[in-house]
Write a structure and sequence with these properties.
The protein has helices at residues 2-15, 40-52, 57-81, 84-96, 98-104, 110-130, 133-149, 156-168. By secondary structure, it is mostly helical. The longest helix is centred in the middle third of the chain and has 25 residues, at 57-81.
């Protein structure tokens, strides 16, 4: 999978930056268009490839940055939901989680999906507390982005609905 991501990024850089037409290497005589999730990571890699040349380390650096932002988003969400000692412990467990470590440097969409899911939940909870429309829209955009990056992220709707019901009861589901 990581090889395909790197190939798609390289092909964006060499053959055109149309984000809706990702191309794989094992295409034979055809154009090689790939059916895949929204290729924002390979496209971003290709944009940097065009500036600095094709270096696979660029993709790892991008996903490393995404991983750091994920840690910050997790810390913020943990502080919102838990008392300080519990938030610190949860953050420590998250940082040391083998899955978080593995996702932090792999060329796959899971790291970005996790970041967007955490941002979505954080801003949804802020919207429930404060009622500010920007918080709602940030949550909505982060949710949509997570689903575009990796379709199984749609499960977040159940989590957001649970928070909504806990805060406003079932009447909260009736309002648009």
């Amino acid at each position: 999978r990581e090889s395909d991501y790197a190939a798609v990024a390289r092909n964006f850089a060499r053959e055109g930056m149309n984000i809706l037409r990702p191309r794989i290497d094992w295409r034979g005589a055809g154009p090689g268009y790939a059916e895949m999730e929204f290729p924002i990571i390979p496209w971003t890699m290709a944009a940097f490839y065009r500036m600095f040349g094709i270096h696979e380390e660029i993709g790892r650096a991008i996903l490393w940055l995404v991983s750091l932002l994920t840690l910050l988003a997790f810390f913020a969400l943990a502080r919102r939901l838990l008392p300080t000692p519990a938030a610190t412990a949860a953050s420590l467990f998250f940082v040391l989680s083998p899955l978080a470590v593995r996702v932090s440097n792999s060329l796959q969409p899971e790291g970005l999906m996790l970041l967007l899911l955490l941002v979505s939940v954080h801003f949804f909870l802020r919207w429930l507390d404060r009622g500010a429309r920007p918080d709602y829209w940030i949550s909505l955009l982060a949710t949509a982005g997570a689903i575009m990056v990796k379709a199984p992220a749609a499960h977040i709707g159940l989590v957001l609905a649970a928070f909504l019901i806990a805060k406003k009861g079932f009447r909260g589901l009736r309002r648009a």
